[in-house]
């Protein structure tokens, strides 16, 4: 029987939201790691994929450049969205899940816009989406709320 293709999972969201950190957390100890940075210039500058297995299922995680980068950063939101669009259309096995990464205290008006562009626009609501909110440890005593 043929091995099923890995499930493609796309991590996207605001620059510095913690996309690469989440990918690394899911990869665990043994696998290759994504670069994480404190730099205002942004860390992930192109799409990069990481293969892993979780509970016997193969996954390919795609770490992507941040949206809504400031003027100090090398490329615009339009560039980042274009790059995401090309990635989503280039995956021959399709996309199983979109993971929208948002940093809690920085939730802005662009959140809804970017959600709609990716979920409604590019993916035509055919791909499930989850949101991960990072950076809540100092703001929210009860993170579940
Ligand atoms: N306090 C806090 N810091 C976090 C959290 N998640 C990530 N960070 C830190 O935030 C910084 C940016 O994290 P990255 O994972 O590089 O963020 P990114 O979204 O991949 O950034 P770009 O690739 O530049 O768009 C790093 O210093 C991380 O250690 C979180 O939940 N809380
Ligand atoms: Mg990154």
TrEMBL record:
Gene Ontology MF annotations: GTP binding
Superkingdom per UniProt: Eukaryota
InterPro entries the UniProt entry points to: GTP-bd, P-loop_NTPase
Record-annotated G domain positions: 9-107
Coiled coil: none
Annotated protein name in UniProt: G domain-containing protein
């Amino acid at each position: 029987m043929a091995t099923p293709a890995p499930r493609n999972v796309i991590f996207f969201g605001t620059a510095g939201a913690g996309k690469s950190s989440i990918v690394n957390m899911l990869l665990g100890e043994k696998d290759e790691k994504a670069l994480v940075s404190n730099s205002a210039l942004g860390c992930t500058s192109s799409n990069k994929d990481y293969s892993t297995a979780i509970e016997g299922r193969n996954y390919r995680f795609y770490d992507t450049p941040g949206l809504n980068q400031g003027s100090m950063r090398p490329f615009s939101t339009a560039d980042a969205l274009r790059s995401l669009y090309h990635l989503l259309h280039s995956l021959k096995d399709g996309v199983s899940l979109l993971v929208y990464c948002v940093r809690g205290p920085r939730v802005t008006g662009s959140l809804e816009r970017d959600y709609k562009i990716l979920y409604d626009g590019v993916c035509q609501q055919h791909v499930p989406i989850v949101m991960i909110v990072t950076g809540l440890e100092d703001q929210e005593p009860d993170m579940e709320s």
